Amino acid sequence: MNENGRHFRLMRWGFWPAWVKDPRKFTLLINARAESVKDKPAFKNAIRRRRCLIPADGYYEWQSFGGGKRPYFIHRRDGQPIGFAGIAENWVGPNGEEVDTVAIVTAAASADLAVLHHRVPVTISADDFERWLDCRSDEAEGVTPLMRGPEVGEFVWHEVSMRVNHVANDDEQLVLPMTEEQREAEQSERAKKASPRKTAAADFDDGQGSLF
Asked: Using CB atoms within 10 A of its CB, is residue 102 exposed (0-12), middle (13-18) or buried (19+)?
């Protein structure tokens, strides 16, 4: 809330509690478990006073296959934007520097999403945005029922290109379903990288082929 209206603010993903002296020596906190967020010293003040929403179209999860990991894009079945439940902290350094930091609240996954990962981001429905963001009561009991994962069938997912594994790639293709042509091209590329290096002895096997 700022001047009687809600505003977007750019924040750093990786929560720094106010009492941290040197962030370089502090473990990066990107997720806060719904089951313990009200009790953890790092989060208990933020969940009462600085709740926020993180807008997204979806998120990625990776599933192991054949010695590697395949990325999937997870999104609402109805295609609507998502409001991830977040908690924020304005960290002030010894020299007066300020950094707005944030973590996403997570919960146990529903039976369908659990095939990808046992934890999921807590998503707040549009009808509950105001309830989640209202921190005037300085308590978290009223929003405890909101800290849960999506219902079964609420979210769907599809396989996407492994281009998402490289941070330099940042385009709309990264959320589109994997095509058969892309899959064949990636499999071909993986096969090339998996081929053992040529040596003077043609029958030499260093075991690299068994890793892929």
From this structure: buried
- Indicate the number of domains in the chain: 1
> Mind spelling out the 3-state secondary structure of 142-172?
HHHHHCCCCCCCCEEEEECCHHHHCCCCCCH
Domain that residue 135 falls in: 12-178
Written as tens digits, the pLDDT of the chain (212 aa) is 878 889 999 999 999 999 999 999 998 899 999 999 999 999 999 999 999 999 999 999 999 887 788 999 999 999 999 999 999 999 999 889 999 999 999 999 999 999 999 999 999 999 999 999 999 999 999 999 999 999 999 999 999 999 999 999 999 999 999 988 888 887 777 777 766 554 444 343 333 222 22
Structure tokens given for 103: 């973590």
The verdict on residue 205 lying in a domain is: no
Of the candidates 111, 103, 117, the one whose C-alpha atom is nearest the C-alpha of residue 154 is: 111
Strands 82-92 and 51-56: antiparallel
Q: What is the CATH number of the domain that holds 83?
A: 3.90.1680.10
**Residue 198 corresponds to which tokens in the numbers above?**
């040529």
Cα separation of 24 and 61, whole Å?
27
| DSSP character at residue 61 | E
